[in-house]
């Protein structure tokens, strides 16, 4: 756990479920010529699509969208806007939801039913959606015709969102998130060695989280699932001793914690608590390993100053430092 002192291309949006297929020269061009520039759009008070829902409908919709990658980086307010803007679409077996080559109109989230994706003139079957997933985003994101045909294999129910709302919410939120996190990451000394595009990829991978005053963020002894960059508020780092928990450090905006367990592959060495209302940017373990390899040596040098790790972890850190230094030579 760090006590380090501080100081997409929307990639996350392109990691989608709609099948990727070859582009066919005979396909007609999309009639949609509009472009959406999130940097130029400063109208937050414009008309928004709202489709009233019962509590039961909203609950079902929440269950359907909670694992959709596209919505992972949305905050609570943005997610509520997504839920407001989606409308129900009931389908019958053999209904065509979208057809390859058509213009994109809606994005779809599956609540129930089985759906098959086909491509090409011979309508080759390439994917089956079984009561979960989403499709239709590529045409909306990139102003391109539909990449595949989706047909309902059974009766089912979908949730849909129109293209304008989809692009405004998803693209604008991704743009704002990147800009906000780029500024946060620029204030972290260990990340100065990253190239601009590497910081952008890192910003795209961060997930916003909030913790109330007094709430425990991580627990000593737990397995690590990621590391944290502090956006706002203060975080108390504490270790368990015979007499109880003892505070060993107080972290603020621009600092980070949680990386020690990721580097050493050991359980959490300390606990972290929100001193006041805290906002953090969370980086999952797989993204940490993929995106922060270049700054591992900087992290290791910082860890040598941690006074609360046991001897076995000290040895692991020192050996890792020597290994990094030998690779540099």
UniProtKB/TrEMBL annotation:
InterPro entries: cAMP-dep_PK_reg_su-like, cAMP_dep_PK_reg_su, cNMP-bd_CS, cNMP-bd_dom, cNMP-bd_dom_sf, RmlC-like_jellyroll
Species per Swiss-Prot/TrEMBL record: Aedes albopictus (Asian tiger mosquito)
Keyword vocabulary terms for this entry: cAMP, cAMP-binding, Nucleotide-binding, Phosphoprotein, Repeat
Protein family per UniProt: Belongs to the cAMP-dependent kinase regulatory chain family.
Domain Cyclic nucleotide-binding, chain residue ranges per copy: 70-187, 190-309
Name under which the protein is recorded: Cyclic nucleotide-binding domain-containing protein
């Amino acid at each position: 756990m760090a006590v380090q002192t501080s100081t997409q291309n929307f990639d996350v949006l392109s990691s989608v479920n709609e099948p990727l297929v070859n582009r066919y020269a005979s396909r007609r061009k999309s009639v949609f010529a509009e472009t959406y520039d999130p940097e130029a759009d400063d109208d937050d008070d414009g008309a928004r699509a709202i489709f009233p829902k019962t509590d039961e409908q909203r609950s079902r919709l929440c269950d359907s969208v909670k694992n959709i990658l596209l919505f992972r980086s949305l905050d609570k307010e943005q997610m509520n806007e997504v839920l407001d803007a989606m409308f129900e679409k009931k389908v019958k077996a053999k209904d065509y939801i979208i057809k390859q080559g058509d213009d994109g109109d809606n994005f779809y989230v599956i609540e129930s039913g089985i759906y098959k994706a086909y491509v090409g003139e011979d309508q080759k079957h390439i994917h089956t959606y079984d009561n979960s997933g989403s499709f239709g985003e590529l045409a909306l994101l990139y102003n391109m015709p539909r990449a595949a045909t989706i047909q309902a294999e059974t009766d089912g129910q979908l949730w849909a969102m129109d293209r304008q709302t989809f692009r405004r919410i998803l693209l604008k939120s991704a743009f704002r998130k990147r800009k906000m996190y780029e500024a946060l990451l620029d204030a972290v000394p260990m990340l100065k060695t990253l190239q601009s595009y590497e910081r952008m990829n890192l910003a795209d991978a961060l997930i916003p989280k909030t913790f109330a005053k007094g709430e425990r963020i991580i627990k000593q002894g737990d397995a690590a699932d990621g590391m944290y960059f502090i956006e706002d508020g203060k975080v108390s780092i504490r270790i368990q001793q015979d007499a109880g928990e003892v505070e060993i450090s107080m972290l603020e905006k621009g600092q980070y914690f949680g990386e020690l367990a990721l580097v050493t592959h050991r359980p959490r060495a300390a606990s972290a608590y929100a001193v006041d209302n805290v906002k953090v940017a969370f980086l999952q373990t797989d993204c940490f390993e993929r995106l922060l390899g270049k700054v591992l040596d900087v992290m290791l040098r910082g860890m040598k100053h941690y006074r609360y790790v046991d001897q076995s972890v000290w040895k692991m850190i020192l050996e890792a430092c020597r290994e990094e230094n030998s690779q540099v030579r």
